[in-house]
Design goal:
Layout (H helix, E strand, L loop, with lengths): L7 H16 L6 H8 L3 H7 L3 H27 L4 H18 L1 H9 L1 H7 L8 H16 L6 H20 L7 H12 L5
Helix pairs in contact: 1-4, 1-6, 4-5, 4-6, 4-7, 4-8, 5-6, 5-8, 5-9, 5-10, 8-9, 9-10
Length: about 190
């Protein structure tokens, strides 16, 4: 059909994201996913090399969506400093760990994405890029001698760890704790 666009790849990604959100990525079965979409494995392999390729595509999609929401959340809060932006971003991410636990677990910990995070293709992950840009801004603004990579690891490890503790009911969210941790990890005064 002239003019008709094939949306099969988008349909596979969308349904997989819904299934991950509902039941977690460990339970994703290609056979069941394709059956739900009434597709053959041949249709799947026209769009993806394998399940890891699908998971990488989903990770990029989720990173883009989460990044857009995070940017808007930070903008809406109207932070006055880069450090305040980081704290607001931390609040956003902790909320995501609470409300979207299966999606955040997938985005940060699925085996397919871990290799990509360690490769030269990190630029495909807008959320990661946004956080690194914010850390770079903080480094320049506050004249911090620590490297961007070290600052990123400190801050991101805390945010993810704190988010997981809250997600699992081992801790409750405390804005003051987040603020204190951010300022101590960065090495600046309270905003």
């Amino acid at each position: 059909m002239a003019g008709k666009k094939n949306h099969t790849k988008d349909e596979i990604v969308s349904l997989a994201i819904r299934q991950i959100k509902e039941t977690g990525y460990q339970s994703i079965s290609l056979r069941r996913l394709l059956g739900d979409l009434h597709l053959t494995t041949g249709s799947f392999y026209k769009h993806f090399d394998n399940k890891n390729d699908l998971f990488t595509t989903i990770s990029i999609t989720l990173s883009s969506q989460l990044s857009q929401h995070a940017r808007q959340f930070v903008l809406d809060a109207k932070p006055s400093t880069p450090l305040a932006s980081l704290i607001i971003l931390g609040e956003f991410m902790i909320t995501q760990f609470q409300e979207q636990s299966n999606l955040t677990e997938f985005l940060f910990y699925n085996p397919s994405v871990l290799a990509v995070y360690q490769s030269d293709h990190k630029d495909q992950f807008p959320l990661l890029n946004d956080v690194q840009a914010l850390i770079q801004n903080i480094k320049v603004t506050y004249h911090i001698s620590d490297s961007v990579d070290n600052l990123f690891i400190k801050v991101w490890s805390f945010i993810q760890g704190y988010g997981i503790l809250i997600q699992n009911g081992a801790a409750k969210y405390d804005h003051k704790l987040l603020t204190n941790a951010a300022t101590e990890l960065i090495g600046v005064e309270h905003p």
